[in-house]
Amino acid sequence: MTTTATRAPAPTTASPLRREDADGVALLVLDRPGARNALSDAMLAALADTLAAIAQDRSVRAVMLAAEGPAFCAGHDLKEMTAHRADPDRGRAYFADLLGRCATVMQAIVALPQPAIAAVNGIATAAGCQLVASCDLAIAADDARFGTPGVSIGLFCSTPMVALSRAVAAKHAMEMLLTGDLIGAEEALRFGLVNRLVPAGQERAEALALARRIAEKSAVAIRYGKAAFYKQRELPLAEAYHYAAEVMTENMLARDAEEGIGAFVAKRPPVWER
């Protein structure tokens, strides 16, 4: 694959999110290291806009999320949230809107046509753990830590629970949510929250290598498969098989399936639709 690198145009003001594209992979870097990459209003807005653009970008075949500084993401910006307690409604409208915007971003990751891979360093807590759980795949540093510590400050991590409970077994999720304890990378791997561990400092390179391997596959097949994966697992068994058969039939009629099968029979490399 020919290497081409582009960088998104520099914004007029410092952005909390940086995007770099190369080899069909969009690298999104959370860039608020001084705030442990907390999901501020500006960060959520940048993520929402960038994910919407990527979803329409046929040149992007995989997405990778990483972070600058010693932490992946510490969750919501509690200082921003606390400031709204002075609102006439004690922040009710702001909190509801904030959590809705965060949920929209998490769902946008799941709905992306392209696979999303988290490269986790340091800590990923509360909505930061939710961000990892929302990604399709995750590579973590062997010293990374994960948690939903809201209960320790009187705020149950109810919205992070949605993604977490879909990524790990129920009893593991409940233990994390009820205790608020941080778990280490080995436990996160055992729980199924991450795919693999690497020595600290190598998580971004490992995630990028995985993203590039995926980017070499048929983007058409990946789009069919990712969407079908999330839909079928919410269906009863018989309905899931019926739905999956419909998807596979449509996929079989796509040009890339014809090309891929023909290339396999002819013992030549396939040329995928771009």
From TrEMBL:
InterPro entries cross-referenced by the UniProt entry: ClpP/crotonase-like_dom_sf, Enoyl-CoA_hydra/iso, Enoyl-CoA_hydra_C, Mitochondrial_ECH-domain
Annotated CDD domains: crotonase-like (cd06558)
Record-linked SUPFAM superfamilies: ClpP/crotonase
This protein's UniProt keywords: Fatty acid metabolism, Lipid metabolism, Transit peptide
GO molecular function: hydro-lyase activity
Superkingdom: Bacteria
GO biological process: fatty acid metabolic process
Role played: May play a role in fatty acid biosynthesis and insulin sensitivity.
PANTHER family: ENOYL-COA HYDRATASE DOMAIN-CONTAINING PROTEIN 3, MITOCHONDRIAL, PTHR43602
Family to which this protein belongs: Belongs to the enoyl-CoA hydratase/isomerase family.
Name of the protein: Enoyl-CoA hydratase domain-containing protein 3, mitochondrial
